[in-house]
Amino acid sequence: MLDQVTVQSFDWGALMRMREVEPALPIVALTNGQQFLQVGQPGASPWLGGIDIDDFAGSLVDAAASFDADAVSPVHGDPQNGKVGDPGYVPFTTPRSWPRPMPPAWTSSSGPWTTWRQWSPSSTPRSMASSPTTRTGCAR
């Protein structure tokens, strides 16, 4: 059964606890962008389980790797329901937000939580076929 489950949460403290309870369960660190990570603001974001993102130079990937997350799944942009070309839309997942290679064990993968492109059977892994939308994330 463990090979059929991933634990995904915006609450990284809960993910850290799940890692302690069942190390074999893959954990996925979700993020809702700057308002969630709080880059450049004093102290740790309440969502990051005691981690101050500034201790990792604002790197979502490095912060998630610090507690051995198996993947990160960021929001595509702000506002969350916006899309490229909308007035005021600011993408979060850009080449600039991934300035260096992923940790050695991480590869590109798909994540289910926000819309990046419309679902199509030919571009979506079978494991996600029940989801109406997909979004690219990073997994190890």
Keywords:
8 strands; alpha/beta; 3 helices; 21% strand; 140 residues; globular; 6-stranded mixed sheet; two-stranded antiparallel ribbon
* Uncertain residue ranges: 107-140
Order of helices and strands: EHEHHEEEEEE
Give helix % range. 10-25%
Q: Note the gap between the termini.
A: 20 Å
Q: Specify the overall morphology.
A: globular
> How many domains comprise the coordinates?
1
Strand content: 15-25%
Radius of gyration: 15 Å
- Please count the helical segments: 3
Which secondary-structure class do the elements indicate? alpha/beta
Q: Name the average pLDDT.
A: 75
Name the quaternary structure.
single chain
What does this entry look like structurally?
The protein is α/β, with parallel strands linked by helices and 140 residues long. The protein has one domain (2-139). 14% of the residues lie in helices and 21% in strands. It has three helices and eight strands; from the N terminus they run E-H-E-H-H-E-E-E-E-E-E. The protein has helices at residues 12-21, 34-37, 60-65; strands spanning 7-9, 27-31, 71-74, 77-78, 90-91, 107-111, 117-118, 133-139. The longest helix is centred in the first third of the chain and has 10 residues, at 12-21.
